[in-house]
Each structure stands twice: as structure tokens, then as C-alpha cells.
Amino acid sequence: MSDDATTRPTGSALTREELLNALRALSDKLGDQGVTGELCLFGGTVMVLAFSARLATKDVDALFKPAKTIRDLAGHIAAELHLPNDWLNDGVKGFLSPRHKTTAGNLPQFPHLRLTMPVPEYLLAMKCMASRIGGTTGETSDVSDIVFLIRHLGLKSARDVLDIVAQYYPSNQIPVKTQYLIEGLFDEGRI
Fold first, then answer.
1. 3-state class of 92 per DSSP?
2. Distance between CA atoms of 133 and 124, rounded to whole angstroms?
3. Which of 134, 124, 127, 107 minimizes the C-alpha distance to 51?
4. Sign of CA dihedral 188, 123, 44, 149
5. Are 61 and 92 in contact (CB under 8 A)?
6. Which entry of 122, 131, 139, 161 is 20 to 30 Å from 150 by CA?
7. What's phi and psi for 16, nearest 5 deg?
């Protein structure tokens, strides 16, 4: 690794403080243009900012508007704050439910940037649909987020969890690995 303080290690996670600084900078830049932006945050960013359920996330998965303006400003912020170029991305678009429900929740708000997130049930459904279990080479895992959300929602059985997933996604699209993961969490006493 370089001694240069401006070099960010590839794949390093964004802390709560770094996320807040980046979002504040985005709000300021939007304000400079006389624009108010909207970000619907997903995944790890919600777990860090709304729930304090983890210390960091690898990026900010979000839907945003005005999309082009925010995408351009995010590039400038990446350079200024030494963040990865894709620190803010909309790759989550392919995983949205037709029953997309959001809330401002416990998220911070900024003068020129309105933040929302999925309701906790929807976030749990999305995490369950992904059901990433990670691995030895640093792959992302959804397991700790799923466990946190199940506890947060006070769910008592695998059936309760799978019923929530089915509220947001058609039953025939729910991967078998999702059922096995959720049942396994309850069978192993992790919930």
C-alpha cells in the first residue's frame, strides 16, 4: 500500500463518517446549482446510517434524481474525497420490487438532499432475495443484516420471514437458497 494519504485501498469500506461527509458534499453541490436531490438508499448504507447495525459499507446503492446531475456530482465528490468512482451507484435497480415502499426512517437529512430508504420489511425481503453468504475471499454476505432485520422486526419463525419476502416478490421468483438460508438461521438458533 502507498504512503500517499490520498490513495484509498481498493474495496475498502466507507464508514458512517465518510458516508455523511459524501452526502453532505452532495447536498452542498446540489444547493450550489439551486437543485434539491433525492436518494433512496438501500443495502449496507441503510444498515450503517439508519440502524447503526454495522460500521461500514463498500458503496452507496441508491436510486436518485435528478439522475444525471447527481451522477456527475458524485464523480466530482469521488475525486475530492478520495472515494471509489462508483461510491454512489444505481445497480440496485434490477432488484426492486413492484411493491416498492419507502420511508425517511431514521436517516439524516440535508438542506438540498432528501434521503429515503425501503421500509424494514422490504429491506429484509431484498436481503433475503440476494441471500449472499460470503466466503473466504471477502465476498459480501447478507447474513448478519438478515439476522439483524429479523430481530428488529420481531419475527419468530422462518415462515414469518418467508411470508414477508412473498409480500414483495412473487413466490415463484424466490430462490430456493433463500428458503434454506432462512430455515437454517432458525434451525441453528441464530435468531
1. helix
2. 15
3. 107
4. negative
5. yes
6. 139
7. -55, -45
How far is residue 152's CA from residue 144's CA, in Å, rounded to a whole number?
A: 12
Per this entry, what is the length of the chain? 191
Nearest to 58 by CA among 41, 43, 72: 43
Q: What angle do CA 178, 184, 185 make, to 5 degrees?
A: 95
> Domain limits of the chain?
1-118, 120-191
Closest C-alpha among 129, 105, 130 to residue 47: 105
pLDDT of amino acid 7: 44
Amino acid at 168: Y
- The model's pLDDT over 17-62, given as tens digits with 9 standing for 90+, comes to 999 999 999 999 999 999 999 999 999 999 999 999 999 999 999 9
Could you tell me the three cell numbers for 104? 425517511
**Cell numbers at residue 121, please?**
420489511
pTM exceeds 0.70, yes or no:
yes
pLDDT digits (tens, 9 = 90+) for 135-156: 555 556 789 999 999 999 999 9
β partners of residue 62: 41
